[in-house]
Amino acid sequence: MHFDYFRKTSRRASLGVIGLRRDSMLSGKEGNSILPNEVVIKIHQYTDDPSMAWEMLKSTTPVRPVRQMKLDTPVRNDAVRFVSVACTYGVFLDPKKIPPGDVLLICGDFTSCGLPQEVKGFNDNLALLKHPFKIVIAGNHECTFDESFMKMAASRHMDVKEGALKHALNAAMAASKITNPKSLLTNCIYLQDNLVELFGLKIYGTPWQPKNDKWAFNLNRGQPLLDKWNLIPSGIDVLLTHAAPLGHGDLMVTGNRAGCVELLNSVVKRIRPAYHVYGHIHEGYGCSSDGYTKFINCSIVNENLEPTNTPVIFDIAVNHEIKSSFIRNAKKIVKKVNKS
To answer: What pLDDT score does 164 carry?
Structure first.
């Protein structure tokens, strides 16, 4: 999203560090004759066995631990401060405990099952947080956000719990006279397989994850998920997914891997964002890097669903005049994005 009052700024100043890095990448100046957007990702032979896939890939796939920024690090005038959380399950985001910043990222599972009253409560909670921009994606627990999940009729093959959940959700929607719960999110920018551009930075969000339960936004590994990852444009700056990529923050307490190998390959070979932020695998909380992209699993709850983890923050350098303009016009920008 661009506005006329930004166009007088020189290209170099307006792009900032990330923009220049992206331009270099997309022009093929990083020593790679194949442009990222020309790379075709193929289905891995062990797509359905992520632990085996990782055994094959780990020797050639760097995973380096990254120290998290201290939460009391002052917000700079020449950088956008991102504050990232995921998997809160309706836990109140206390304004006194959420670090200050310019953009709050919420990577799914902000409710227990997507009931209208949960979504409304979450939206009211967002209004108490002073971050000028809040960007939200759904997770597998936002059942009412997944139209295909809600439309799936009950059948004799359906699990009793699944049938009861769908019945309760549809009854709650009818009682609330709500047909589109996403419309209740008025205090944020909601992304679902699309992007928004803020401060000259491209931010893309998608809710899908490998099928492991009978909740929302579940797809089979392999081609169904790859079709979703292929929608993500190359060269974005910040990628929000609910799913974890294979090898980065996806190790479960069982010792098995749960990440998506096609998501990993899409990120490191084609999309190449500066930051990939996600949740879903609660015990995978933390940060890592492959030397190019920084991976952040920002799940607030642990494997026991206890909210023991803190938000993760990071900065991206931008021109201070552009930052000032976006902050000053934040309400107008959010309103315009949500109308488009």
So the answer is: 85
